[in-house]
Each structure stands twice: as C-alpha cells, then as structure tokens.
Amino acid sequence: MWGGAPASSKILCLIRLEKWLCQEFEERWTKIDGGEGYTGIHIRNTDMKSDFKGTLDVIKALPDRVFVATDSAQVQNDLACIRAENLYMSKIPDFGGKPLHHFPVNDLEKTEITTTAILDLLILGLSRKCLVSNINSGYSKLALMLQRNPRLILSMIDRRNVSEVFYRRLRARVIHNWIFNFWLAAISRFKVVQVR
User: Fold this and answer.
1) Nearest to residue 129, comparing CAs of 30, 7, 36, 11?
2) In what order do the strands lie in the sheet with 66-70?
3) Which residues lie closer than 8 Å to 21 by C-beta, 6 or more apart?
4) Which of 150, 43, 157, 152 shows the shortest CA–CA distance to 90?
5) Residue 76 in contact with residue 55, Cβ under 8 Å?
C-alpha cells in the first residue's frame, strides 16, 4: 500500500489509535485548532523536492492559524523566520536534507518520528483547508484524502480514550468539514452561465 493509493482509505478505517496516542492527538490538536480552525500545509522537501520558497509566501500571507507538516528542518527554520504568530509545527530532527529512510536512527527515534508523522497526518486531515507543495507525495495524497473524508479520522478515535469535550469538538469539526466538502463537490458540478 502506497500512501495515496485508493486502498489506503480501506486500511485506515480498520485502524484504532492506542490510548496514549489518542491523548497525544487530543493535546496537539486542541492547541493548534484553538476553536478557530486552521489551514494545514504539507511541504515535502527531502527526497522529493518542492518549491517551498514559493509556499513560504503563501504561508506568510495567510490570515488564520497555520499548521505545517514537513520532513525538512530547513523548511521549519525558514518558516520560523518569516512567521512567528499562529504558526504550528511538530519538532523534527535535522537529517541534513536527507529522508528518514536514508539516515540511521535508533528505535526510540523511529517511534518518535513515526508518532509525529501519524499525528501530523491527522492534524492535516482536520484542517479547514489543506494545501500541499508536491502532489506526487503519497503522504500529501493521504492528507488530502483524509481532509476530504474526515470521518475516517473519527473512526480511528475510541471516545473512551479522550475527554468528552474533545470528542464533541472533534466530531463537530468532522461534520463541518464533511458538509463543506460535500457542498464544494456539489457546486463544482454546475456551470456558471451569465444571463443577459
């Protein structure tokens, strides 16, 4: 199964996050969302290069909260220089521009990096808008698929493992995003005709 393959949604609906991961997700998403929503952006810039300099201008101009998931410490450093307020990123190690699978790390580091990747993916999936710098990235495809079908995220969370307040907020966001995506798909089928 590659990241963006159609089978991914069938696999994801079978996954349930363990309690500790649900609680970590609750903590991170609550901090990022702040009840206002946010724009999620994935910038892949190690083995698959992207024009992230152009993406920086977009991020700088966004008026709302921004969550950026990236595999590049360089991208994180550049972002921190251009935007300090309402910018959220998960801490990642600096591998000198090389992808994780080309760099030797110990089991603890692998667990931390994998946990960050999973949580970042879910956070991207719950964003009001999800932008990607490289559509060929399987991770970006998964993030976009989750953002269009956020009910998959809800299916991964056992409500007994999170607070009731968080679960209600999460459910409300999922419903909001699902309705918005449904509405967007519906209006995109209509042609605008100018009447004279």
Assistant:
1) 36
2) 87-89, 66-70, 39-43, 129-132
3) 115, 118, 119
4) 43
5) no
Quote the tokens at residue 152. 């998959």
Contact in structure between 105 and 14 (CB atoms under 8 Å) = no
- The CA-to-CA distance between both ends of the chain, in Å, stands at 52
Are 79 and 89 in contact, with CB atoms under 8 Å apart?
yes
Residues in the chain: 196
DSSP class per residue in 135-152: TT-HHHHHHHHHHH-THH
Note if the pTM is more than 0.90.
no
For 72, 118, 126, the CA distances from 103, given in Å and listed in that order, are 13, 19, 30
How many Å apart are CA 122 and CA 30, to the nearest integer? Answer: 12
pLDDT in tens for each of the 196 residues of the chain?
455 666 777 788 888 999 999 999 999 999 999 888 899 999 887 666 677 777 888 888 888 899 999 888 888 888 888 877 888 999 888 877 777 666 777 888 888 888 999 999 999 999 998 988 888 888 899 999 999 888 899 999 999 999 999 999 999 999 988 888 777 777 766 555 455 5
Q: How far is CA 128 from the centre of its chain?
A: 10
Structure tokens at 194: 């100018």
Which CATH fold would you assign to the domain 7-187?
Rossmann fold (3.40.50)
